[in-house]
Write a structure and sequence with these properties.
Blueprint (H helix, E strand, L loop, with lengths): L1 E5 L4 H12 L4 E6 L7 H15 L3 E6 L5 H10 L4 E4 L13 H22 L3 E7 L22 H20 L2 E7 L2 E2 L8 H11 L2 E5 L5 E2 L2 E2 H10 L7 E6 L6 E2 H12 L4 E5 L14 H7 L7 H14 L1 H5 L8
Parallel strand pairs: 1-2, 1-4, 2-3, 4-5, 5-6, 6-11, 7-10, 8-13
Antiparallel strand pairs: 9-12
Helix pairs in contact: 1-2, 1-7, 3-4, 4-5, 6-8, 6-10, 8-10
């Protein structure tokens, strides 16, 4: 089996590629543009980890954008691809308000390019990474049958566009599509714009951390190993079009509580600079995971206390490297 993973040097993509290789997948093809939303050195760090893991196994990496159709055509011509996991995306809710066109180019046009090449090469399985941000305005726990027609950020709107395209191609060309809506993914070597990453760095360095709102907003934090496990489970053929939540389970955790846990793990008190909440931010997220359990046999297994300890441990082990990373555009 040959699997194409886009966004292979990204946080989730790296973990998915690693787990595919460890599972013995015969060929993994990785694509990533190494864009500068955050420092590409972190993406190169992840790719270096993959080079050590792959060993005798076949991992081929190509630098390029899914928005570049000729580039993609060259990749598809070189490999007989069986399945595609599209994790390439412009991420970050706040930054999408500054450069919305970039989000639509990557998240919508890029997805369209992949679907067109799937049709051309008769590839039947497609996994799309989507987001819990689509559920804004709905009561929790969020369920896949809730209408998600009121995105409150360009980022969420672009993900909605990608989902709609996937449904159209499923309807027209019988492509088997699984859309996975992720809930606040965190873990070691994660995205520097995510709150836990920024907070760990600030607390450890004795700097002020910026907190939007009063900290009572809550999230369904989902550890990266659980997300990767869910992606691999979704690679089975489901014969249709399905949207599936992958959330951390249990009660959502407030941002204030997350900061308290990090203070304990790091052994220092946080210095907090509070700013007004953002109109693009959701007050709370919580997943109904029943569909994931029924269709994929998937349940989350890592709670926030355990997951944050792993994040802090990675940060401490790699402190010098992290402190050299350039400022993230999403911060």
């Amino acid at each position: 089996m040959a699997v194409l993973v886009t966004g292979a040097a990204g946080f989730i993509g790296f973990n998915v590629v690693r787990d595919l290789l460890r599972a013995g997948t015969s060929e993994v093809i990785g694509v990533d543009s190494l864009n500068e939303y955050y420092d590409p050195e972190l993406k190169k760090y992840r790719l270096n980890q993959l080079s050590h893991i792959s060993g005798e196994k076949s991992f081929n990496f190509y630098k390029g954008s899914i928005c570049d159709r000729p580039f993609l055509e060259e990749v598809f011509a070189k490999h007989k691809i069986d399945k595609i996991v599209n994790l390439a995306a412009m991420a970050g809710v706040r930054y999408s308000q500054e450069v919305p066109q970039v989000y639509f180019e990557t998240n919508v046009l890029g997805t369209l390019n992949l679907l067109e090449l799937m049709r051309k090469h008769s590839i039947s399985k497609f996994i799309l990474a989507s987001t819990s941000s689509l559920y804004a305005g709905h009561p929790t726990p969020f369920s896949e049958d809730q209408p998600v027609n009121n995105p409150i950020s360009p980022y969420a709107a672009s993900k909605k566009g990608a989902e709609i395209l996937c449904y159209s191609y499923h309807h027209l060309y019988k492509i088997d599509v699984t859309v996975l809506r992720f809930f606040t993914v965190y873990g070691p070597a994660g995205r520097p714009d995510m709150s836990y990453f920024r907070f760990i760095k600030a607390i450890d360095s004795g700097e002020q951390l910026t907190l939007f709102g009063d900290g009572t907003q809550s999230r369904d934090f989902t550890y990266i190993s659980d997300i990767s496990k869910g992606v691999l489970s979704a690679m089975q053929r489901i014969h249709g079009f399905d949207v599936i939540n992958l959330g951390g389970g249990g009660d959502p955790i407030t941002i204030n509580k997350m900061i308290e846990l990090l203070e304990i793990d790091i052994g220092k008190k946080a210095k907090i600079s509070r700013l007004p909440s953002q109109s693009s931010d959701m007050e709370t997220t919580r997943a109904n995971n029943m569909k994931a359990k029924e269709l994929l046999g998937w349940e989350p297994s890592v709670n926030l206390e355990v997951g944050l300890k792993e994040c802090v441990s990675w940060y401490i082990d790699n402190r010098d490297f992290v402190l050299k990373l350039a400022h993230c555009k999403g911060n």
